[in-house]
Amino acid sequence: MAERKALVKAAQAACTLGFVGYVLYKVFTRPSSARPGINAPFQDSNAVATFESKFENTDREIFAKREGILGALPLSEGHVVADLGAGTGAFLPGLAARVGPKGRVIALDNAAAFLPVLREKVSKMVTPTSAPIEVGVSSHTSTGLPDASVDLIFSADVYHHLEHYAEMLASIKKSLKPGGAFIVVDFEKIPAEAKRCSGHGHSHGAVSHGHGHGHGHGHGHNPGHGHAHGQPQPHHNHHHGKQGGVSTEWVMGHVRANKQQVKKEIEEAGFTVTERTEVAGLKDYYLLVCRPN
Ligand SMILES: C[S@@+](CC[C@H](N)C(=O)[O-])C[C@H]1O[C@@H](n2cnc3c(N)ncnc32)[C@H](O)[C@@H]1O
Q1: Residue 54, Cβ neighbours under 10 Å: how many?
Q2: To test the ligand 1 pocket, which listed residue (53, 109, 125, 255) has its Cβ within 8 A of the most ligand atoms?
Q3: Beta bridge mates, 155
């Protein structure tokens, strides 16, 4: 009898161990949803100073076209808007102007080291006709916002930096007020082969421009990207449109997923995704409006 009990206990212990082992295996072997190390350059108190000239530079397509991008968003006066992955704050003045003094802007980033510098910077951005801007910290898996608290979560050049996109998408969904939207502005990832297959010619390598200056966004950890990667970077997209462009080698290596994959991931997280194509001059990037189902 005692022997049987001992056997049952041993079997139970083995099952528990097996289960714990399985959970640990799943957690530690879970594929990252961003290129490993992609966020390392931001974990530095000097990151705002380092990236300011790269992010807030008219050679960067989404900075040059920021008014058009912001104009395409479902934003009104009085709205509460979060800028997820605000970085150096390139989009904050424009967001604050659009929602006006009755609105609120929350700049979120998970690179806590530079947030005091960002806080100092945003204190100088507010004008009598713009919204107050707060700075908050998010994590890899959560916006850190209260449930149903914001009308819009804007993200520019951030989706491919999300290390746990599924968890973050669930958190984004919870943070949005009913009727709210999540905005993704991210890089087109179009390989040269796709271009050749489409039969439109001009498969001469990277034609997109703007991030050369270091797309720089340079993230610092990849000194070879941008102009330095040995490819001439023509300053024109010969096709003047996303369909015509192919992505730079740097983008191909830096960005995890292409637009179709990103759309699929967001749809699987329970959003309806609509692409907005009317922003004049957007070639290297796309803009998605994602509404919870
Ligand atoms: C390429 S920068 C873009 C900055 C800014 N949105 C812009 O376009 O100028 C990416 C930013 O996303 C931030 N980031 C990465 N993962 C994040 C997360 N889970 N939550 C918030 N920010 C995140 C990084 O710290 C970095 O500031």
Answers
A1: 23
A2: 109
A3: 184
